[in-house]
Design goal:
CATH class: Mainly Beta
Largest sheet: 4 strands, antiparallel
Number of helices: 1
Strand order of the largest sheet: 1-32-31-30
Number of strands: 32
Strand content: 35-45%
Helix content: under 10%
CATH topology: Methylamine Dehydrogenase, Chain H
Structural class: mainly beta
Radius of gyration: 20 Å
Shape: globular
CATH architecture: 7 Propeller
């Protein structure tokens, strides 16, 4: 029996199709930037091996990996396109699209026409948010459109960027613009609205679901606030004012030891405690630092340490103790303007916007870079997707598979 179990465990460890290797949504299985199944080499090679490269369309959505398929959400001409590819060969399994004419605001012309939102996969369905606020559900096996809800007449200043989150029979998104925005729970099967909270418009980060004080809630940044909303009813539980120098934040909240991490450009980083008392819900600061600050780069937590790229000093890597708020180290300045950061065990992978992938071994003393690789010739604004010995990289318009040999 023991021999059979060991053989079965080995098959699971070697198979590229097991669930543990999936990357089904924004920032991975738990939306925390952690890859649970990357096979790190004993010695890093001088170069990564490029297996294939495909033109897939414009956009900043991260590649979604589910079993043996990679899903991409992009723009091609006047359409928003969802494609499924064989994860090993890159071959197109299916392609589906819908008309999505789009006129960029003057504030976002340098960003391009998107989409910026990463799809979410759950129970055989894929959910997307287009640049004009269109919410769609597709059958992941065939690409068939299951339902679609058209966007509101207005969008945020820099257009949509939030990525959907699925919980049971609900998919949750913040839709609309500054004055008509609504955090909405849609029925995954029909697209029917289950609940909505219209207290503020959407920001550019993505929502998380945390259990705080025994209550499961959607925690997210909005145009002018940081809020917790009941997952069951959409009722506002708590709210605190929050704006940044760039109008609103692009951060996804982080939970550490019951504390919620609040961050945005020019506001430093704050750990807050959400509490429920006889007079309702309140929040209080546990610690705060202005020594580092996050803008469009989301950090990752590694053994109680937040590793990120501060926008201060023209881009500076840092490590911050999440219990005390003490900055443990900072790198030299001018590292990158932006980076997509994920982790695998003690390794941190930073895909910089200049097309360089930096591999860092986390420690509490200093920045330790173990490898640097040029992986793209155009801008890279997405997070890499890691599985086994594979690294999927999306640049402005192409998707490339690299392997670590």
């Amino acid at each position: 029996m023991r021999k059979t179990w060991l053989c079965f465990s080995l098959i699971l460890a070697l198979s590229p199709n097991v669930f543990a290797r999936d990357w089904p949504q924004w920032r991975g299985p738990e939306r925390d930037g952690a890859a649970r199944s990357f096979d790190a080499p004993e010695q890093w090679p001088d170069e990564l091996t490029q297996r294939w490269k495909l033109e897939v369309g414009f956009g900043y959505a991260s590649p979604i990996l589910v079993e043996d398929r990679i899903y991409m959400f992009t723009r091609q001409a006047e359409e928003e396109v969802l494609t499924a590819h064989d994860a090993g060969s890159g071959d197109v399994v299916w392609r589906t699209s819908y008309p999505a004419p789009f006129e960029m605001s003057s504030a976002t012309r340098s960003h391009g026409p998107g989409p910026k939102s990463t799809p979410s996969f759950a129970d055989g369905r894929l959910f997307t948010l287009g640049m004009t606020g269109t919410v769609s559900a597709f059958d992941a096996e065939t690409g068939r459109l299951l339902w679609q809800v058209e966007g509101q007449p207005t969008q945020p200043l820099y257009h949509t960027a939030t990525s959907p989150i699925v919980d049971g029979d609900r998919v949750i998104l913040h839709v609309g613009g500054h004055n008509d925005g609504e955090l909405t729970a849609f029925d995954v099967a029909t697209g029917e609205k289950r609940w909505g909270w219209d207290g503020d418009g959407p920001a550019y980060g993505s929502p998380m679901i945390f259990e705080l004080e025994g209550t499961r809630q959607v925690v997210t940044f909005t145009q002018e606030h940081f809020v917790g909303v009941s997952l069951e009813t959409g009722e506002l539980l708590w709210s605190r004012p929050y704006t940044t120098a760039s109008t609103t934040t692009s951060q996804t909240p982080i939970l550490h030891d019951g504390h919620v991490i609040e961050a945005g450009r020019g506001n430093g980083i704050t750990s807050i405690r959400v509490e429920r008392g006889s007079d309702g819900w309140t929040t209080r600061n546990v610690w705060h630092t202005d020594e580092v600050s996050l803008h469009m780069t989301n950090g990752v937590a590694v053994d109680g340490v937040l590793v990120g790229l501060s926008h201060l000093n023209s881009g500076q890597y840092f490590a911050l103790d999440l219990d005390s708020g003490r900055v443990l180290w900072k790198s030299a300045p001018r590292q990158a303007e932006n980076a997509g950061i994920v982790r695998a065990g003690p390794l941190v992978f930073s895909l910089q916007d200049d097309g360089e992938l930096v591999v860092i071994r986390m420690n509490r003393d200093e920045l330790r870079v173990v490898a640097r690789y040029d992986v793209a010739t155009s801008a890279t604004w997405t997070q890499p997707t890691l599985a086994g010995n594979r690294i999927y990289v999306k640049d402005v318009s192409s998707l490339t598979l690299f392997t670590v040999e």
